[in-house]
Amino acid sequence: MDRQGNTYTFLYASVMVIVVAALLAFVSESLKDQQNKNVEVAKKIDILKSVNIASSASDAEALYEKHIGANAFVVNLKGDKVDGDAFTVDMAKELKKGADRAYPMYICKLDDGTSKYIIPVRGKGLWGPIWGYVSLNEDKNTVFGATFGHKGETPGLGAEIEKEPFQTPFVGKQIFDESGNFTSIKVVKAGLSKGDIHAVDGISGGTITSQGVRAMLEDCLKGYENYLKN
Questions:
Q1: 141 located within any domain
Q2: Cβ distance 174 to 146 under 8 Å?
Q3: For residues 17, 29, 92 and 105, what is the CA-based torsion angle, rounded to 10 degrees?
Q4: Counted domains in the chain
Q5: Is residue 150 part of a domain?
């Protein structure tokens, strides 16, 4: 075959594409289990972070088992426990189900003997999904800790939701008022939350992301109202 001809060039390119694609598919499949494992560990790190337990890839699983273990379950909108594995619930899919969604709940036992109730939240930011975990004290009302993450918010603006200066002010805030009515936690314009037990400051310049966090909290926490009250 004429190696200078178009036929040879076409066949050579086709073979190379097939070979490279096959190699990439093989590598991807070979690493799939490890990738899934890494996702699970990262999730446990985030869950533990919401109750101020520092962990890493090397000890997250052991700490999760020690403090949470089997104390994870699923509830429905009525607050009743239902069948399901809290850890494997896909929040992105559940949000599309409306009232029929599953609500994962994690109960964490700390070394001081107290229990914290960890609620996963998920919503939309400016450029993509945002998510996080909010932990409540034993009164099932006062925030003990919060952690948030994002897929593609603007660095220095919306991306600040994953940093402590934004997350720390949630500690001590309450999701129910004195009469027991659900209020959620409002994310308001920077500087306006002072003295408000139900609000935190938003991010200057990150208005849409801040609004996304506010909507996420209101939507997700509301689904746990009956469980937390009962």
A1: yes
A2: no
A3: -170
A4: 1
A5: yes
- d(CA 81, CA 137) in angstroms, rounded, equals 20
Residue at 11 is within a domain: no
What is the pLDDT at residue 28? 73
For residue 27, tell me if it sits in a domain: no
Segments forming the whole domain that contains residue 218 = 46-229
Distance of alpha carbon 113 from its chain centroid, rounded?
Answer: 26
The residues near 102 (Cβ < 8 Å, ≥ 6 apart) are 74, 75, 76, 82, 84, 89, 94
Tokens of 20: 């490279």
Separation between Cα atoms, residue 222 and residue 218, nearest integer Å: 6
User: What pLDDT shows up at residue 184?
Assistant: 97
* pLDDT mean by block of 10 residues, the chain; 230 residues: 68 85 78 80 97 96 97 96 95 90 97 97 96 98 97 94 97 97 95 94 95 97 96
Question: Whole-angstrom Cα distance, residue 61 to residue 158?
Answer: 30
pLDDT at 94: 93
Candidates 149, 218, 159, 140; CA nearest to 186 is 218
**How far out from the chain centre does Cα 92 lie?**
10
pLDDT at 9: 78
Say what the pTM is.
0.85
The predicted pLDDT at position 89 comes to 96
